[in-house]
Write a structure and sequence with these properties.
Layout: H1 3-15, E1 18-22, H2 32-44, E2 49-52, H3 57-67, E3 74-77, E4 80-83, H4 85-94, H5 96-106
Length: 107
């Protein structure tokens, strides 16, 4: 990953309380896993940003290195890598995701 891509990802993660690197956009998810994450965040009714990795090959490859996580989508809350679709579902079902989101939005 180039330093430029690293900086772009750093800025996206730091400038947004909740950011999802996904296939497609929050209005048009392009895969089921990305759609799951969008639906969970929409259910929580919280503001979040999305980055379409399909429209940016460098980000698509770079984010996997950045997080050391091989799959998309990837969710960051308050600068912290949370995980992908399965982890988001699990955290949501346990009630832990709501807490993380509340803390992030309050800070």
């Amino acid at each position: 990953m180039t330093p430029e891509i690293q900086n772009r990802i750093d800025n996206l993660v730091k400038q947004n309380k909740i950011v999802v690197f996904m296939k497609g956009t929050k209005l048009m998810p392009q895969c089921g896993f990305s759609n799951n994450v969008v639906q969970i965040l929409n259910t929580l009714g919280v503001p979040f940003e999305t980055v379409d990795v399909l429209s940016d090959y460098d980000i698509r490859q770079g984010i996997k290195e950045y997080s050391n996580w091989p799959t998309i989508p990837q969710v960051y809350i308050n600068g912290e890598f949370i995980g992908g679709s399965d982890i988001m579902i699990e955290l949501y079902q346990k009630g832990e995701l709501q807490q993380k989101v509340e803390v992030a939005l309050a800070s």
